[in-house]
Amino acid sequence: MAVAEVLAALADDNRRRVLETLKQGRISSGELASRLGMTPQALSYHLAKLKKADLIYETRYKNFIYYELNLTVLDEAIIWITNLRGGTEHES
Questions:
Q1: CATH number at residue 43
Q2: Crossing angle for the helix pair 13-22 and 40-52, nearest 10 degrees?
Q3: Could you read off the pLDDT of 77-91 as tens digits, one per residue?
Q4: Which band of pLDDT confidence, cut at 50, 70 and 90, is reported for residue 44?
Q5: Which residues, other chains included, contact 84 with Cβ-Cβ below 8 Å and sequence gap of 6+?
Q6: Which of 35, 46, 59, 70 has the fewest CB atoms nearer than 10 Å to its CB?
Q7: How far is CA 57 from CA 49, 83, 89, 91, in A?
């Protein structure tokens, strides 16, 4: 996992909206664009960034492309951030 790519992908509001929508399950690119009110070109840009960070993956079926969350990468990012904190309790 490239932490820098994951954090850069998560820094954008539009990409976080994509991830929130994908939390509901697998969805086609057309339906995703419609739900988010994005043009296909804008969505394609954000999907490329999320794929590069391995936060999502795509599957193809006939003429459709479907997207899903890659929770493994999210878990790895959470572990990395938790380890960076140095534990669960903060010293004042």
A1: 1.10.10.10
A2: 80
A3: 888 889 988 865 554
A4: very high
A5: none
A6: 59
A7: 11, 26, 35, 39
Residue 68's contacts (CB-CB under 8 Å, 6 or more residues apart) are 22, 25, 26, 56, 57, 58, 59
Using one digit for the tens of pLDDT, what is the confidence trace for 30-43?
A: 999 999 999 999 99
Say if 89 falls within a structural domain. no
Q: Are 4 and 54 in contact (CB under 8 A)?
A: no
| Number of structural domains found in the chain | 1
CB proximity list for 45: less than 8 A, separation 6 or greater: none
- Amino acid making up residue 29: S
Phi first, then psi, for residue 66 (nearest 5°) are: -110, 145
Q: Tell me if 23 is assigned to some domain.
A: yes
